[in-house]
Write a structure and sequence with these properties.
Rossmann fold, 18 strands, 35% helix, 3 domains, alpha/beta, Immunoglobulin-like, seven-stranded mixed sheet, Four Helix Bundle (Hemerythrin (Met), subunit A)
Length: 447
């Protein structure tokens, strides 16, 4: 590749078109000879439609709904949860397994893992759920895993969906221990998605559970958004086209993969690898890589090789492997030949902005509003500069600039209410920042 795009549809082992395509764009197609440095690579995974579409051809689901019914869920929040669970019951088919676990200080199995034959009867049981005491999140989470594990096997979607509005205060409350358990579950083929409701839950815990568990994290500021999130998650589960997705990147010609913005990959001497959640129809995932390179002699050079492995969800559940080798040229030339690719630089700065939102949220959590504001202001200045580089107006950058302005206005107008008795605004603000960061880093569309 010389300053362009590499697209691969190579699938090893069988003559078939891959359901996931790979696109790689380098920030530079040409470098000056003899100068070491760093470049960026934008990697996009693009999922197509399943080769055999239709509800009857989808993967079976093995789903555990793990629901907080502690005292804080009393009233409207719990009613929205019950309506959402009834919606899920209506959607499951005879090929699916469903279990429902509720928790307060105790853990109850409302519905052991089973195929649902009497939907009306189960919905009546769901209606009877009432709020209770404190929050034994770990107990509910682990019991949900036990239910999924009863029917867990390859060739289906094995998922725990955990919803809570509060802090874990009974049972295991150590986030690293729970994250390690979620990682172990994912390694056994059971993924974890989490939903946090309101301003009082521990977003850091739910986020690391979802990331370690190869699922998704959702932040719901208002309880009336709960049904929409359940519908979104279920829609995804019904359209999975690729599972067991792993990417390995190996530096070539003396290059080294130095980082993947927003991710914590497993590094080797010159490369890195990442496992990713299932991909849905028409989904796009983006990764931004930093590649350190040595001084190049004049000529064309291989920069890195990317290998994508995944299991397709149709037919015989074949394992596919795709490979892309990115190249660039070292040569003297006019200044315009060394101009960076705008789309790659934009992707870099958007992910850096996402990371800055986390940094700002942490500063606000410490009560350091000045630092929190300054971090966002610096990002706003940078994005305005990048937007001015765009050959045509860029809606994605414009939206991010607008979001930053709204966040900064909120900090200016409400900062006096964030200290002392009224902390709910501060907590909600932190959750909003971290959720926006998560959505960008994980290529999840903003809602």
């Amino acid at each position: 590749m010389t300053g362009g795009i590499v697209v691969s549809e190579f699938s090893e082992g069988r003559e078939m078109k891959s359901v996931v395509g790979v696109e790689v764009v380098l920030s530079h197609g040409m470098l000056m000879p003899g100068r070491p440095g760093s470049i960026w690579a934008l990697v996009r995974l693009v999922a197509g439609k399943a080769e055999t579409p239709g509800k009857d051809q989808r993967l079976p689901m093995n789903l555990a709904l793990v629901l907080d019914r502690s005292g804080s869920m009393h009233g409207e929040p719990l009613e929205h949860v019950k309506n959402s669970v009834s919606f899920v019951v209506d959607q499951v088919a005879s090929c699916d397994f469903l279990s429902i676990v509720t928790f307060d200080h105790n853990v109850d199995v409302l519905c052991p893992s089973q195929t649902v034959t009497n939907k009306d009867g189960l919905k009546q049981v769901i209606k009877s759920v009432s709020s209770g005491g404190s929050t034994n999140l770990s107990g509910g989470f682990l019991r949900g895993y036990k239910e999924v594990l009863k029917e867990s096997k390859p060739g289906q979607v094995n998922r725990i969906l955990l919803l809570t509005d509060g802090q874990a205060n009974v049972g295991i409350i150590d986030p690293p221990l729970l994250a390690a358990k979620a990682k172990s579950m994912a390694e056994k083929g059971v993924s974890v998605s989490t939903i946090g409701v309101g301003a009082s839950f521990n977003e850091d815990l739910l986020m690391i559970l979802a990331e370690a568990g190869q699922g998704h994290y959702y932040y719901v500021s208002n309880p009336d958004e709960i049904p929409k999130v359940f519908a979104e998650e279920l829609e995804g589960l019904l359209s999975v086209v690729a599972q067991a997705i792993s990417i390995s990147m190996e530096g070539l010609s003396g290059c080294r993969v130095a980082g993947v913005l927003g991710y914590e990959p497993v590094f080797t001497t010159t490369g890195a690898s990442i496992d990713l959640p299932d991909m849905y129809e028409n989904e796009v995932k983006a990764l931004v890589l930093q590649i350190d390179h040595p001084p190049f002699a004049p000529g064309e050079h291989d920069v890195f090789k990317l290998t994508l492995d995944y299991t397709g969800t149709c037919g015989d559940l074949d394992t596919a492997m795709l490979q892309v080798t990115a190249k660039l040229t070292a040569s003297d030339g006019p200044d315009r030949a060394f101009k960076p690719n705008f789309e790659v630089i934009k992707a870099v700065e958007l992910v850096r902005t996402a990371l800055a939102k986390n940094e700002s949220a942490e500063a606000v959590d410490r009560g350091d509003l000045e630092t929190g504001r300054r971090v966002l202001e610096e990002r706003l200045d940078t994005l305005n500069t990048v937007a001015n580089m765009a050959p045509v107006p860029d809606p994605e950058l414009d939206e991010e600039v607008k979001d930053l302005n709204v966040l900064l206005e909120s900090m200016d107008s409400n900062s006096s209410t964030w200290i002392g008795e009224s902390m709910l605004h501060s907590l909600a603000f932190q959750k909003k920042l971290k959720y926006q960061s998560y959505q960008t880093r994980r290529s999840r569309p903003k809602k």
